Amino acid sequence: MHVPKRMHHVIMKRLHKLGDIPLHKTQIMSLMILKNHEPVTMHELGKRVGMEKGSFTQVVDKLVQSEYAQRNRDQNDRRSVLVSLTPKGVELTDQIEKRSMSEIQKMFSALDTEDVKSLSNALSVLDNIITKIEEIELENE
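Above: the chain sequence. Below: its structure as tokens.
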């Protein structure tokens, strides 16, 4: 398992234990992807979450029913459905982001100064690598 996925898993597990966010991990991840990339097609969102279209449709259905997300036809391609956040979804993702940061701070507060420096350097390198990968992907589109 990759480091970012492991960190994400730990944070999501801690958020889920708090019990005040009424969604499953996949739903939370979908909302956070929408927050950073909306609007996106159902296909792209499912791909980013790592789920097949059939089972992922149920995830989006629940987000729409809960009024956290909405579906709209893509004006440029009527066959395609775009998913975006509703105002209620924006409010919830802001809350999730704040809670996530709080949980990260709690986890890192247990580290000594040297570990924090090492982690900071590693994250900086990782961020640079991800940026390069994203640039390459954009060039190949």
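The radius of gyration is 17 Å.
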